[in-house]
Design a protein that fits this description.
Shape: extended
Structural class: alpha+beta
Largest sheet: 10 strands, antiparallel
Number of helices: 5
Strand order of the largest sheet: 1-2-3-4-5-6-7-8-9-10
Strand content: 15-25%
Length: 275
């Protein structure tokens, strides 16, 4: 997707300069590689015959073998650099160049936007996603109710659940007013709860151990596309978020589009930016 016209021009110039530098470096490596190949060929030819008549080139067979070995090592190093050059720019062409060849969400026609949304819904039908139930929460996380019996431990970022990890969650708090010096008051990170992650499940709790939401992540396709379903504490579907870089499409529980995120900016289904 195009970021904007000025940014695109700037990035193209930067990548063009970078490409020219790598290209010159690669050509230099190719020339050195060819030069070493000629020297190696000559040494191998001389080492296979009586070297007495070739003292103008080398002093002894041992010296020929030594130089041959050194040339082979050097050629391997140069060949590795050349291969890295093509790998780097191959990945660049496959992953970055399409960004400059497509339109922004706001620049698409309404028909194009609707076709994309329909393709998202179709793809989600073909992607597998784990199921969620009260039984699963009890078996996998030890939750017989919406209250975590081990919240005192989990709120410290520690868990005994096999294959899971607990992470503290924070929010930033800034007291109102100013210091005597006139500078703004400091910001503080205040813990508001914690999350427990295990496999494709993420459980979010407040600091008192009350379950707030459950997020289930689908499998990821070969193109890197996946989606997440977000449930309430009673396991009622609240929303679905479809991830397809650079898009994040947010659907409600009826699979209606709420908003589309593109490069951190939110848009509605008609391409208008929203807050």
């Amino acid at each position: 997707m195009l970021l904007n016209r000025n940014t695109s021009i700037f990035l193209v110039k930067k990548f063009s300069a970078l490409f020219k530098f790598h290209l010159k470096f690669s050509l230099h490596c190719v020339i050195n590689f060819a030069s070493l190949g000629i020297k190696l060929s000559l040494l191998l030819r001389l080492s296979l015959v009586d070297t007495i008549g070739f003292k103008i080139f080398i002093d002894s067979p041992k010296l020929a073998y030594c130089k041959t070995f050194c040339y082979i090592i050097e050629m391997k190093k140069i060949l590795k650099k050349i291969l890295l050059f093509f790998v780097f720019w191959g990945v660049f062409a496959a992953g970055i160049l399409p960004v400059f060849c497509s339109e922004l969400w706001s620049e698409l026609t309404q028909k194009g936007r609707m076709e994309y949304i329909d393709s998202c819904l179709e793809k989600m039908e073909s992607i597998k996603i784990p199921s969620i139930s009260k039984t699963l929460l009890e078996d996998e996380f030890g939750l017989s109710t919406n209250r975590d019996p081990n919240y005192k431990i989990h709120s410290q970022g520690v868990t005994n659940i096999k294959g899971a990890n607990a992470i503290k969650t924070f929010t930033t708090y800034q007291p109102q007013g100013y210091y005597i010096t006139g500078s703004q008051s400091r910001r503080f990170d205040v813990q508001v709860g914690y999350v427990i992650n295990k496999d494709n499940y993420k459980l979010e709790f407040n600091k008192n151990g009350s379950l707030q939401s459950v997020t289930v992540k689908s499998e990821k396709t070969s193109e890197g596309v996946y989606f997440e379903q977000i449930y309430s504490k009673n396991l009622n579907l609240k929303s679905t978020v479809y991830y397809d870089n650079p898009y994040q499409v947010v659907f409600d529980n009826n699979k209606e589009v709420e908003k589309i995120f593109e490069y951190g900016k939110a848009y509605n289904i008609r391409g208008k930016q929203i807050k």
